[in-house]
Amino acid sequence: MLSHIALVFWRGILQRRLFTTLNVLGMALGMATFLTLALIVRYEFTFDRWIPDAEHIYRLDAFSDEETTVSSIRLIDALRAEHPDWNATAILRGFSGATVRINDNAWDVFIARTDAHLFDVFALSLAEGDPRTALVPKGVVLTRTQARRFFGQDHNVLGKTLDITQKGRTERLHVTGVLKDLPPNTTPQFDLLVPTSASEMQAGSSWEMSAAETWVRVSPAVASRLPDLLSGIVQRHAAGLSAEDAKAFKIRTRPLTTLHFFDATIGWGGADERLPIILGVVGLLALGAGLVNFVTLSTALAATRSREVAMRKVLGATVLTLGLSFTAEAIGLALIAAVIALVLTELTLPWISTLSGWPVGLDFGFALPLLLASAIIGGACAGAYPSWMLSRFRPAAVLASARMPGSGRLGSRLREGLTVAQFAFAVTLTICTLVIWRQTHLLQTMDRGFQQSGLLMAYLPNEQAERLRQQRLSDLVRGLPGVTGVTVADDAPGGGRAVITFDTTRPGRSDPPPLLAVVAMQPSTLPVWGAHLLAGRLFDTTHDYDSRAMPVAPFDSFLAGQSWTFGAHNVVLNEAAIRALGFADAASAIGAPITLHGKDIQTIIGVVADMRFKNSRASVTPALYYAVSGPIGYGVLSVRFDHAPENAVRTAIATVWKQVYPESALNLRSVGDIIDNDTRPEKQRGTLMIVASFVTLSISCIGLYGIAVFNVRRRLFEIGVRKVLGATAQQVTRLLVLQFLRPVLIANLIAWPVAWWVMRGWLSGFDRRISLSPLYFALTALIVLALATLTTLLQIRRGARSAPAIALSSQ
């Protein structure tokens, strides 16, 4: 029986080449899109799961106000005092960068300072060295990538030395281990691991200072009781904290395998979980479109095989044999589509990964079972209706019929319903794609409150001696060709490193005081940034209170645990601060006094537009700007240039930098690059949606073309009768086109509310967003209707122009 089924299957392919090609191509496109997006979704949902015992590793977040990903280093002592059997470690996040020097070469790096227990928590493999002895004083563990960067090779580097400068202190370290490069879907990323003693890590620390990541690995039995075991631990070890402050501290245990999505919910990196979910739904819709197309064409094709089925039944074929034959043929075609889909995915995945930014590759162990299951399910669905319908035909009635037997009204309604579902998928995706593209365009082109072009940023070294060189660097850079402005502040496009917030009140108001970000800057900063002045004036050094010396930077005071006195200043606020303080408008705030941190009275002299320095999604933080005469702690250099090539300006700045900071590496970024990095997730989403929409529309048009071919062939007799009775070719064409467009119109009516609901929810996550205009829905309808018309028109016109004699003889 199998040989008979195979023979019929092969003959069917040869006899119905057009329908077979359309069928397989539509299914293959749907499968390829589904597989590509499934690989991306798998990548996102398997973050950190490759780490041994990842499900038993937890990060401990200790906080008193809002949760962050860091905690106090003091938590380690408390844990080891109460639970000495736990593996616990800490990874410090230094507030200043570090520079690696080897001979005359320097690199700007991120250093993770840790204790000797890191590899007890994270059982990571070393390419060179022993994890048990690698974390020793004066040692350093590099990743393979960093080893190649520093030494030109990733092997035979044990014992080599390098100098690391951080916070004005230089130490010579020797390489004790080479860590295998961590997969990109890893939350804790380590470039350089520098073992550090407990006393060094805890120097100057306090419970209020959150600067470390605290990790533990515990057994499942302990994990189930972690919240109870950690309850009150801060209060029991809260040296230096008041009883009230200690009581406010909370500790949350966050499983490592959940951090990738969780951190995004608290605004500390990670990824929005909705994105892979949306991509997964899009992939299922693309697969559904391919499957619907497959079932639709299989159902239409089955109607042309009535006489074949009748003859086979006359010759002894049973209902079971016919049903198995149809199902096997459909699964066979689906398997061919699966092979083509695998090839398409292999060819296009590098391109898709480059455009979207997801570093995914084709995993055959994951792809083959997925495609096999899709082929079997799709083939079974496609073969079910023909098996049920055709195997029950009465041979005598079919063979005696003068016309081509069909599936009747039930088959026509089924095919029309499947076409409606198919185009509903396509219309929904197309509307979503247009909205996402427009929102991404808005993020890339919107006014961010400052002049974006011609602006370069660089973080400055932060030690006291290094801060004193800021003015020399500024003077040298200001004299470079093409440079029109140079300034230093502790915030800038892309984000500063030490901006802190303070409660701010207006005299006579009883509302809860809002928190304002307090930003230190030179008097020239706002003009160099190109800030938009809305009311009042900017800083002017001829006014005494416009620019005052700050003996101690606010963040330095915070780190040292000292009380901080801000003093009286003239200040400039942004729009968000004006709204938070309850002023009617910008003009009404000019000259008004405000109280900072309950004791320091400031006078508002100007209001500038909100400047979006960081996340495009989030609302702008209320900010207070004050001018400082003298060095600025944790400063960011801003350089404005014009009428000069950016590369030439970069090269000139790098030359000057080496003169002023020979021991530190320069990390110069353009605002354009910063904005590109900020909007990359939306661009990735938009790229994938465009591809998925194109594929889904293509599949729908392929299916519609196949149905048009089938219906025109079946209705040639009807066309001939209409033409004999006086109908013209144009009238017949119009009639058939309108009949084919009916399911497309119905699909639009179904898709519009779904797309509106989905996009309304997605747009709500943006502070600045486009309006959900009816134009997106109307434009999509026009595009889809035009494609449907073009797809069917050629075949319909060919049938409508056929001679009546030929048409009447077709049956």
From TrEMBL:
The chain crosses the membrane at residues 20-41, 277-302, 314-344, 364-385, 417-437, 688-712, 732-755, 775-794. Residues 281-392, 690-802 form the ABC3 transporter permease C-terminal domain. Coiled coil: none annotated. Keywords: Cell membrane, Membrane, Transmembrane, Transmembrane helix. Pfam families: FtsX (PF02687), MacB_PCD (PF12704). The keyword Membrane applies. The keyword tRNA-binding does not apply. It is found in: Cell membrane. It comes from the Bacteria. Residues 20-222 form the MacB-like periplasmic core domain. It is a multi-pass membrane protein. This is FtsX-like permease family protein. It comes from Gluconobacter cadivus.
